[in-house]
Amino acid sequence: MISFKPVLMDEGPGWKKFHLPAHFLHYYDVWRYHIQTSAHIETNNKFHVLNLVEGNSILVETQNGISMQFSYAETFAIPAAARKYKVTNLSGDEVMLVIAFIK
Fold it and tell me: What backbone torsions phi and psi does residue 37 show, to the nearest 5 degrees?
């Protein structure tokens, strides 16, 4: 039997990354970040679609200097060409960010 419970994949100072398993036939995959301070995320040559599902706001900065603030329930995209980006928690409490991408 397949478990569809979140699985802790990685963690660092101020963040945790969970895998949210989906059915093996689905063509996409989903991660959920719990961020207290900030997290550095790599695109791994995948287009990322993100949604802030908990918390007030975050700041997203790409490695080439583009930055933008996002608020609760906003959905946005990071192109694969960005390679890396930093997410900084601007809320007083932990934020949760869901990231979906093609497998």
Answer: -120, -75
Q: How many residues does the chain have?
A: 103
Other C-beta atoms closer than 10 Å to the C-beta of 15 total 21
Whole-number Å distance between alpha carbons of 11 and 8: 8
CB atoms closer than 10 angstroms to residue 66? 11
User: For the chain, which residues score pLDDT lower than 70?
Assistant: 1-3
The angle formed by the CA atoms of residues 83, 24 and 20, to the nearest 5 degrees, is 55
Q: What is the pLDDT of residue 2?
A: 63
- pLDDT at position 4, please? 79
E-strand ranges in 1-103 read: 7-12, 15-19, 28-35, 38-42, 48-54, 57-62, 67-71, 75-78, 84-89, 95-102
